[in-house]
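Below is our example:

___
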Amino acid sequence: MSDDLHMRRALTLAALGVGRTGDNPSVGCVIVKNGAVAGEGATADGGRPHAEEQALAHAGDDARGATAYITLEPCAHRSNGAVSCSDLLIQSHVARVVIAARDPHPMAAGVGIERLRAAGIEVEVGLLEAEARVQNVAFFGKWEKP
């Protein structure tokens, strides 16, 4: 039940940015440790910083051993040379990542998930996926073939 609750909070955060994130999807992220929210974030206006960056900064050291609830697979690349969100999650030593939907972008699809798993992080995908897809319907429509 708590997984559902925390992912719904991530979806609520993501909803705040719909239509304001440029070419990026609006993503929400909630970091939870020992049942308490340690950090939250949503994709900023214009698309940067990403939700994970903000939530991890808010959580600080409490991210270590925590669970991250993210509405879209964390990025594995950054065009501006910054550290990707999947790498930030690895560096923060989260123990588990729960993702609503895989990223359909060809440069990202599955790469962030594999990177997290390769680092020994438990990853679950698909919690409230339908809601996440509806929230970013334009982003999914741009990258998925019918």
Q: What stands out?
A: The chain has a mean pLDDT of 94. The CA atoms of residues 98 and 119 lie 15 Å apart. Residues 2-15 form the longest helix (14 residues). The beta strands are 28-33, 36-42, 67-72, 96-101, 122-125.
